[in-house]
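FIELD: query
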Amino acid sequence: MSLYLRDDERAIRVQRLVNDWTKSRLLVAEQRDRLLPELQVNLRRTNIFLRVTLFVFGYLIVNALTGLFVVTLNLSEGATMYLAAFAAAAFFAVAQVLVQRFRLYRFGIEEAAAVASVSFLAIAASMAFYPTFSMLQAMIAAAAGSFLLFRRFGYVYAGVAATLFVALIPFGTAQVDTVRRLAAIALMMTVFFIARERRQDHDWDYPGDAYAVIEAVAWAVLYFVLNLKASPWLSSPDELGLFYWATYAAIWILPTVGLFLAIRDRHRLLLDLNIVMALATLMSNKAYLGAEPKPWDPILLGVLLITIAIGLRRWLASGEQGGRRGFVAHRLLASEKERLALAGAATVFAPGAPPSHAHEPPSIGGGGSSGGAGASGKF
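FIELD: result
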């Protein structure tokens, strides 16, 4: 059961939409001023910058405080495990008190305590059968703890983390790679269909929007596990003939099916992820077939993408009122334009071409660099 009322969660989401619609000029200021007073909630919130600052410093303080006990008391491994378990329960309780008593909502400090509780739970679980440290137990505990945070506090990133930890559980076993990947595929399919069913139950209303994110993440992780050329570092593929070519077919089928589902359901995040997956499939094709990559491959891919983008834009714009079945060729919301600008700004961090280095002329016989032998040389 969530600590926050469903009506409060819905009101906060509508507040964001109203502000976004106003910035996008879909609403005028007078309409916004009439709507916002009806959407007020009795929760304490802050801006994203202070929230991140409080989270980072709060998480560091919590971990430093616990580490101080371990170092000062010189605890053994067994005692450290019990301290980690106690810290997990204690900080989870602290997070709940901060929410229930002080009415904090995404304030940063209560998130730090909640996330730290999951970290300590994973540490305690990994040391449960000392001296054997188990990553499998840590992954299971982290997945369970993250899911509890998602259900209790509504943190979407905790639900995403739980999905990722669940996918990693099979890779903590001693099975062969094919078995591990098949187990991860089964788990991600289960998470995908459960999240999809929950999202459809709420019809994009809270918590349907949160389950939509988990649905998309599970679909993306499913593709990542299936693409042997994109995830060899996760676990070295066995490259068994039947499984190898089945995954090759799957990386073509998944983006196609995903695009169909995303367009039918108006699922924007799933649509974006499947476009990225389709690009990853094109980039993995030659590696799967064992073909030699050519220097002009990126050029051909770029020309193909430009052609598809221009053709799709013109097709959408030629429809009635500049759109087809609710899809238009331009962005309507200011938030989407800001995300696109942020993504463009992030490209400055992309590695560029290495600088050219002038080749030094070889020295001959230790002589000088100009004129006669030894004019500026050393003997």
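FIELD: remark
Strands lie at 323-324, 327-328.
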